């Protein structure tokens, strides 16, 4: 009786939704390009980004790329710049991790502290603006025009005083001046790279809110599509008990659906903002490893004559060992 009911549900699902996957895919692509077209990219030069010729107040967002002021080994706040209380600095390409920087032959390790500064000029006065951060490794504090508007973890000069945190932020502020000063402190003693490798975004509150809504829509559509795909194949398994291939692909799709929650603005973090940095990294890595193992099982079930059991063990055993290592080791060791 149960099997007949499942078969009926499956037939109805196939009848009504078999053509919907293509429509969803087309919608995702369309929305993605709509979101991308709303971003403008002009590079900062020597710590200054002039946006006079850009269309910020016409609904465009700006990627804050280019050469920012970079102060290695210093945790500076806006008052330090007013009193000129800082040491030498260089202009470095942003976004990038600081281990890629080279100053007169000197390179920096992945662990340490640093400060960044950028001035955005010719900003329209009397407007609400937003700065959207990405992943900053692994603790940061962000000032705009002398006020703290965002942070992740706790910035510290040593490993004992620095607490990593994952907190991509959608930070709103009101600008009374035509210049916006951004000061960013970063400390990293827990991740393989320090700094940030995804550009911050800047724009009016209205434009940035619209862009963020579109980004969330894309993530929801990707998550929903992969979730339906996974459940669809698990439903097939209930009808065809001997179809291991369908089972492996269904679980693989569900793992990809879970992974999509961590992409971009991270829907997972928006629902669980208090999750620890370590747990966040562990979830991402373990999901990757499990998805890889499930794909191997799927591939093996499709082509048993071309992918032997020994080959399966060769790739899957290290993946399982890596999962165990992730569970018991510091984040810096496994990233």
- The chain-level structural class is alpha+beta
Poorly predicted residue ranges? none
Q: Give the terminus-to-terminus CA distance.
A: 50 Å
Order of helices and strands: HHEEEHEEEEEEEEEEEEHHHHHH
Largest sheet, described in full?
A: 11 strands, mixed
Count of helices?
9
Overall mean confidence score, pLDDT: 85
Beta-strand residue percentage: 15-25%
Summarize the amount of helix as a percent range.
Answer: 40-55%
What is the strand tally?
15
Structural notes for this entry:
- This protein has 335 residues and is of the alpha+beta class.
- It has nine helices and 15 strands.
- Strands 1, 2, 3, 4, 8, 9, 10, 11, 12, 13 and 15 form an eleven-stranded mixed β-sheet that branches. Strands 5-14 form a two-stranded antiparallel sheet. It has a two-stranded antiparallel ribbon with strand order 6-7.
- A hairpin with a 2-residue loop joins strand 10 (139-144) and strand 11 (147-152).
- Helix 4 runs antiparallel to helix 5, helix 5 (244-260) packs antiparallel against helix 7 and helix 7 packs antiparallel against helix 8 (309-328).
- It starts with a helix and ends with a helix.
Name the descriptors.
9 helices; 335 residues; alpha+beta; two-stranded antiparallel ribbon
Please specify the SSE layout and strand pairing.
Blueprint: H1 2-17, H2 20-36, E1 39-44, E2 48-50, E3 61-72, H3 78-82, E4 90-94, E5 96-97, E6 102-103, E7 106-107, E8 112-121, E9 127-132, E10 139-144, E11 147-152, E12 170-175, E13 179-188, E14 195-196, E15 201-204, H4 205-239, H5 244-260, H6 267-271, H7 277-302, H8 309-328, H9 331-334
Parallel strand pairs: 1-3, 2-8
Antiparallel strand pairs: 3-4, 3-8, 3-15, 5-14, 6-7, 8-13, 9-12, 9-15, 10-11, 10-13
């Amino acid at each position: 009786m149960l099997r007949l009911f499942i078969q009926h549900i499956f037939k109805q699902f196939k009848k009504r939704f078999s053509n919907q996957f293509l429509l969803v895919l087309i919608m995702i692509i369309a929305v993605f390009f709509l979101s991308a077209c709303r971003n403008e990219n002009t590079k900062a030069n020597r710590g200054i980004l002039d946006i006079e010729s850009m269309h910020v107040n016409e609904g465009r967002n700006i990627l804050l790329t280019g050469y920012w002021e970079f102060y290695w080994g210093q945790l500076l706040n806006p008052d330090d710049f007013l009193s000129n209380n800082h040491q030498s600095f260089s202009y470095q390409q942003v976004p990038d991790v600081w281990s890629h920087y080279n100053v007169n032959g000197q390179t920096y390790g992945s662990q340490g502290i640093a400060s960044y500064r950028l001035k955005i000029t010719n900003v329209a006065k009397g407007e609400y603006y937003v700065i959207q951060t990405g992943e900053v490794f692994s603790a940061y504090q962000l000032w705009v025009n002398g006020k703290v508007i965002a942070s992740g973890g706790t910035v510290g000069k040593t490993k004992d005083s620095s607490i990593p945190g994952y907190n991509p932020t959608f930070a709103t502020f009101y600008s009374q001046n035509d210049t916006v000063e951004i000061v960013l402190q970063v400390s990293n003693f827990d991740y393989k790279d320090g700094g940030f490798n995804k550009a911050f975004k800047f724009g009016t509150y209205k434009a940035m809110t619209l862009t963020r809504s579109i980004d969330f829509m894309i993530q929801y559509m990707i998550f929903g599509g992969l979730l339906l795909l996974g459940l669809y194949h698990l439903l097939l398994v209930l009808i065809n008990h001997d179809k291991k291939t369908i089972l492996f692909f269904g679980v693989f799709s569900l793992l990809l659906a879970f992974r999509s929650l961590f992409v971009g603005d991270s829907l997972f973090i928006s629902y669980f903002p208090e999750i620890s940095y370590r747990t966040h990294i562990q979830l991402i890595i373990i999901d990757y490893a499990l998805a890889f193992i499930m794909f191997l099982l799927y591939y093996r079930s499709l082509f048993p004559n071309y992918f032997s059991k020994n080959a399966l063990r060769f790739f899957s055993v290290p993946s399982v060992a890596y999962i165990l290592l992730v569970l018991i080791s510091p984040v810096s060791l496994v990233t």
